[in-house]
Design brief:
Elements: H1 2-12, H2 18-35, H3 40-48, E1 68-69, E2 72-73
Antiparallel strand pairs: 1-2
């Protein structure tokens, strides 16, 4: 999970290309399959479930009170968790 988060952050800062991330994960999955051949069906299912559209990784800005406009939030935001934190 850490590598996934690192790649997402690097993509958002444009420090790495999508091609480099794709190549890296292709190598990781190939190595995994080499060691765990019984996982082939799971990997193929994961690949077939991948979205067919590109996702944009970026940032979101929040200002003052208001509503979300064009992916930015202009207003207050309150986040509560199930454990009250």
């Amino acid at each position: 999970m850490q590598m996934l988060n690192e790649h997402a952050e690097a993509l958002s800062r444009r420090e790495i290309t999508e091609r480099a991330v794709t190549d890296n994960w292709t190598e990781l999955f190939a190595a995994f399959l080499g060691a765990h051949t019984d996982a082939r069906a799971d990997i193929e299912e994961l690949a077939s479930a991948a979205p067919n559209r590109a996702n944009t990784i970026g940032s979101q800005n929040n200002y003052s009170s208001g509503v979300f406009i064009g992916n930015n939030h202009y207003g207050e935001i309150n986040i509560s968790t199930r454990n009250g934190g």
